Amino acid sequence: MDHWRGMTESFDQMVTTTPYNEFQWAHSGAANARSGERLVQRFIALVQGVSGVKSICDLGCGNGYMAGRLAGLGYEVTGVDASESGILLAREAYPNVTFLHSKIDGNLCELTKGAEFDLVLSSDVIEHLYCPSDLIEASSSILKDNGQLLIGAPYHGYLKNLVLAATGKMDSHFCVLDDGGHIKFFSVATLSQLLRTHSFTDLKFSFYGRAPFLWMNMICLARKGG
């Protein structure tokens, strides 16, 4: 038992002391070129379909591209990202947006100075987090009562995984050889469970890219519970 406890403590120390390796941004345009631009357009359309939204927080805003697009439509937008290079580009390119350089964690409410938002959005961020609950809890902490969360992640499901396996693309899709990248793989069921565990309700899913059940991304609109 003492040996196991020592191993656990050593592992915990290694995890907590590992430095954050930020994503390096080199431009202020949409990520992933044309596909990324279309995904941004889908998010913007979904935001515009939510009534009563004036203030938005973009969690994991990257270089600020989507935050800047939304601000250009008249929304009051705050962007948050852990990448210093992304935030520097964002502040230069989109001066009408408030950008905060921060990880997505329990300090977010303090950093936003108690501001409460009508809508929090996050695109392709949660799959990069060791603790995905951090994003959901941070969202809840800065949302108004009955505020909305619009969250997107790569889609995974039984049929898609079966096709990947049958076509020999499983290793390239779930690549483990690069530093960083996706470390969580969500399905509709698991993302729904995570949201409901944190008292989000009225979940509505939409999908982006490829044929049905082979989608590239899924996007969920959920309401903060009372």
Task: Describe the secondary structure blueprint for this structure.
Blueprint (H helix, E strand, L loop, with lengths): L1 H16 L15 H16 L6 E5 L5 H8 L3 E6 L2 H10 L4 E4 L6 H4 L5 E7 L9 H10 E12 L3 H9 L3 H4 L14 H10 L2 E9 L8 E8 L2
Quick overview:
This protein is of the alpha/beta class and 226 residues long. The chain has helices at residues 2-17, 33-48, 65-72, 84-93, 108-111, 133-142, 158-166, 170-173, 188-197; strands at 55-59, 76-81, 98-101, 117-123, 143-154, 200-208, 217-224.
Provide a descriptive summary of the structure in words.
The protein has helices at residues 2-17, 33-48, 65-72, 84-93, 108-111, 133-142, 158-166, 170-173, 188-197; strands at residues 55-59, 76-81, 98-101, 117-123, 143-154, 200-208, 217-224. The protein has a single domain, classed as Vaccinia Virus protein VP39 (Rossmann fold, 3-Layer(aba) Sandwich). Strands 3-2-1-4-5-7-6 form a seven-stranded mixed sheet, sandwiched between helices. With 226 residues, the chain is an alpha/beta fold.
